[in-house]
Amino acid sequence: MSINELISIVDKSEAPSKNDGMNKVYHDLFEELKSNVDRIITIYRHRPSQKIAIEIYPDLPTFHQAINEPDPPNWFMGTYEDNKIKIVSPLNPGPEHTYQSVLRHTISLFTMWLVKDINPLAPKWLTHGLGGHEAKQMSQEYIQYSTSELIQNNAVPSFQALTNDTWDFEKIGGYGFSHLLVEYLIHSYSLDALNKFIRDATDFQGAFQVSEAELHGMWVQYLKSRLC
Length: 228
Fold this sequence. Notes:
The protein is of the alpha/beta class. It contains twelve helices and four strands.
């Protein structure tokens, strides 16, 4: 299947027009997707069950209103639901992002959507961790800033805490820890094991041959070794 068969792009401006700026967005977004989607589908061994629409909103307030988030942080510029990925326009990304970072975030969102298409019960840390891993968008400086103090203080969140679906997820270092947890699984286990776990994210023993508590303890030791 071609990218055009898998994904459509929809301009959600009140008066959408094919000006030079939006033509460039369409072109650049399709190029970003063409460079990554087949690879991601191959890694996670799953063809999308339906065609995906990427909806582009003209600015952050319009995007936030469309997803019923009245007062979110300015860095929040993309999400997904059902068969739709929703993003702010790269032409007007707000104060926390750039043209390129919005484009790149669509790869993270596509990965998260694909994992949920495989397993609707996949936990937040798994979807966000894999999305961040595939987009390679999160800086090491941010990961260290958001996690190192908690690691040093023996306060690494539990896997359950990393399913928090509120804005507190960022406050507990959720994005950084999700990235580090996926990094640990990819470093320590096979792709077969990871794919098995994606399909049943409660079966730690079946995928990794350890209990949830044992895996968490091993991960914490890995995190501490990274700080040395």
